[in-house]
Design brief:
This protein has one domain. 28% of the residues lie in helices and 32% in strands. The protein is globular, with a radius of gyration of 15 Å.
């Protein structure tokens, strides 16, 4: 691998954000993932709709989102209630994902943990005010 290929591979990894959605109905998780898939490239298949877990377990749905390209424009989306999304990745990548989600939802950072080169943010995703 030459230096250019290695730099491209490192930049691609830096553009990936892990997204975990919890504390909501499966339909709302699907709405968030559909918006993310419209805004960016995701490893989650378009027809991979979150389902309720059997029993009384809490559900966590996840995806890896590549934010290397500028976010596409999207219209506001409707949720039945607030969604908690935990995002983890490089500083600029997580900020870019949060800003992209802002096209479709109201997004508020409710907590974060910072590391040397990466951060984890807990976001509250809700309907945008009319």
């Amino acid at each position: 691998m030459n230096d250019g290929e290695e730099a491209a591979q490192n930049n691609q990894g830096a553009a990936q954000v892990q997204v975990q959605v919890t504390g909501c109905l499966p339909e709302d998780a699907h709405t968030v993932f559909t918006a993310l898939d419209t805004l960016f490239v995701s490893d989650r298949a378009k027809d991979d709709a979150p389902r309720d877990p059997e029993g009384a377990r809490a559900a966590v749905w996840s995806a890896i989102v590549d934010v290397s390209e500028a976010p596409a424009q999207t219209t506001p989306r409707r949720l039945t209630g607030p969604v908690t999304a935990t995002v983890q990745g490089g500083y600029w990548a997580t900020d870019k994902l949060r800003a992209g989600l802002g096209y479709a939802f109201s997004v508020r950072n409710v907590g974060s943990t910072s590391g040397d080169q990466e951060q984890e943010m807990q976001l509250r995703v809700d309907n945008r005010e009319a």
